[in-house]
Design goal:
Helix content is about 25%, strand content about 25%. The strands form three sheets. Strands 1, 4, 5, 6, 7, 8, 15 and 16 form an eight-stranded mixed sheet that branches. The protein has a six-stranded parallel sheet with strand order 11-10-9-12-13-14, sandwiched between helices. A two-stranded antiparallel sheet has the order 2-3.
């Protein structure tokens, strides 16, 4: 039997050096270059277009969590340039579920590729993975009897959760300290918005469903204090500061018989299914996460960003590799 036919975008094109980010130590990353790797069977080569810069990546490096050295990047879109799979042909725009996406090109297993609906942009496709996480998290909540949902935190993940909840017809109250983020929450359909210092005593321990989407100790404390007896606290925030350690008022949690859910998932098959749904939501203009992108960076900008220089007030930063690739 002969070798499988390889589909390439341009077999005559001159081979370019590949570039990628490597996390080398606490607060430090490098941009490395090398010859592209050979394409193994069951994989495709993707020319990367955009990568969402995730706080979980930058926080891991800044706090020295390691392991080092390592490659990072899991919010990726691009175009297939080489494939041995006839169902995934060269020239196909895709989203990829990977962990090494900060790069000009990546090699991806066939089963970690999402072909895009024609209406989905490559910018939205790069953000299909975080939107997938929100989709899966919200599906864990039994909201059929909810009269209102309290959302603590209106960052990138919180705003996408807001939009999905509003699309389902829920009344959502958002609590967020940043003025600009509260303004976005109002535009994206929040019924009410408050800063944390505007929360009244009457709101405390008086809500059936509260979602925490801050990833910070203060946000978790506030969210928990808002839940009524027998209510549900959904934790969507990814907690990394202080090594992820948190101190909670367990006596109060016990007394109120809180139902506490981690809204996170680790099953790749589930995430792939939700990523496909995410890019379809974007294709049909139901939720376009790229509308929240307020900072574009280049590959050479990443070392400063990972070192903590700037980007703190951004809702979402996107790495743009369309010119580099």
């Amino acid at each position: 039997m002969g070798k499988p036919l390889i589909s390439t975008l341009d077999q005559k094109a001159e081979t370019k050096l590949a570039s990628w980010l490597t996390a080398t130590g606490p607060g430090k990353v490098t941009i490395d270059q090398g010859q592209p790797e050979m394409l193994p069977g069951g994989h495709v080569r993707v020319r990367v277009a955009y990568v969402g810069v995730c706080h979980s990546d930058t926080a891991m490096v800044r706090e020295g969590q390691g392991p080092f050295p390592s490659r990072l990047g899991h919010e990726v879109s691009g175009t297939i340039t080489e494939s041995t799979d006839p169902a995934l042909h060269a020239g196909m725009p895709v989203a990829a579920y990977v962990t090494d996406g900060y790069a000009t090109e990546i090699i991806v297993p066939n089963d970690r590729i999402i072909p895009l609906h024609p209406g989905c942009s490559l910018r939205d496709a790069a953000l299909a993975e975080p939107l997938a996480c929100v989709i899966g998290g919200l599906e864990m909540l039994e909201l059929a009897q909810a009269s209102e949902v309290i959302l603590v935190g209106a960052g990138f993940m919180g705003l996408m959760a807001l939009r999905l909840l509003v699309a389902q017809g829920h009344r959502v109250t958002v609590i967020e300290p940043r003025d600009t983020a509260r303004e976005l929450a109002n535009k994206w359909g929040a019924d009410r918005t408050f800063s944390p210092d505007e929360v009244t005593d009457a709101m405390m321990q008086n809500n059936s469903f509260v979602i925490e989407a801050t990833g910070a100790a203060a946000g978790l404390d506030l969210a928990a204090s808002l839940v009524q007896i027998g209510g549900t606290l959904g934790i969507m925030g990814y907690h990394q500061s202080n090594g992820g350690k948190r101190t909670v008022d367990m006596e109060s949690w016990n007394y109120r018989a809180l139902r506490v859910l981690s809204l996170h998932h680790r099953n790749p098959e589930d995430v792939m299914r939700w990523m496909d749904r995410a890019q379809r939501l974007s294709a049909h203009k139901i939720l376009s996460p790229s509308d929240l992108v307020d900072s574009l960076v280049r590959l050479e900008d990443l070392p400063a960003l990972f070192a903590g220089e700037g980007g703190h007030n951004s809702i979402k930063t996107l790495l743009d590799l369309t010119e580099a690739s």
